[in-house]
Design goal:
alpha+beta, 7 strands, 234 residues, five-stranded mixed β-sheet
């Protein structure tokens, strides 16, 4: 690195030179290495030290605040915004073409999500229900949740997240017939502003045959079954 150039400066310069957008909800793993992530945590720790200092928190003597800047840095890079810096999960696809064994029905899965509102950096917590008509290939069941969680681990809006999950799953499954329903609570609604403690936001993305009323209704019925089942497991 050049003199005085930070890791974030260097990565930002690379993104600009390659014409890669780096909004809060974008994945930039194509230019971020594991070494970069470690350096970003170090850099971000210093920044969070400044934040706590400006909030007039005695991080040198308060035992609850001494290591908070590094905890925050690791949380942002490795966890709540990890979907920006990590590559997409590896997905194994299985052929679904044999006339005797081909599955042609609806697949519905459930993925628990934690994301972050890009406006206020407050948590967004919820569930995605994913439905699709099987195409010429299917993917491992756990991968639906892995992909949805990877899409969620960044700063985004729920509307964008719903579409992002749909786009990624269409890419990996090859199907044109897909639906994603997300329901979530938002910290920016619950912890500040209107303090809406019982607020639930719901978003849906329908594609292909899921605009067909009968297919859409079957998907919604499966969601109700999943919700009942999930309720019996808690």
């Amino acid at each position: 690195m050049g003199k005085g150039l930070t890791t974030s400066d260097r990565i930002r310069d690379q993104l600009k030179s390659k014409g890669i957008r780096y909004w809060a909800g974008d994945n930039i793993s194509q230019v971020v290495t594991d070494k970069d992530k470690s350096e970003l945590i170090d850099e971000l720790t210093e920044k969070f030290e400044g934040v706590l200092d400006t909030l007039i928190i005695d991080r040198e003597n308060d035992p609850n605040s001494m290591d908070t800047p590094r905890r925050l840095a690791k949380m942002y890079i490795n966890e709540i915004m990890g979907g920006r810096y990590d590559k997409a999960p590896k997905v194994t696809a299985f052929p679904n073409v044999d006339p005797e064994t081909r599955y042609g029905g609806i697949i519905v899965t459930r993925a628990e999500l934690i994301s972050m509102c890009s406006h206020h950096h407050q948590p967004v917590k919820g569930v995605a229900y994913i439905g699709l008509l099987a195409g010429v290939k299917v993917i491992g069941l756990s991968k639906y949740a892995r992909i949805a969680q990877w899409c969620a681990a960044r700063g985004t809006l729920q509307e964008e997240l719903t579409m992002s999950i749909a786009n990624e799953l269409m890419k990996h499954t090859g199907t044109k017939d897909l639906a994603v329903y997300v329901q979530a609570t938002h910290g920016c609604m619950e912890h500040r502003g209107v303090l809406a403690h019982s607020s639930l936001t719901q978003t849906t993305e329908l594609r292909g045959q899921f605009f067909n009323p009968s297919v859409k209704q079957e998907f919604l019925d499966y969601i109700k079954m999943q919700q009942v089942f999930a309720g019996t497991r808690t």
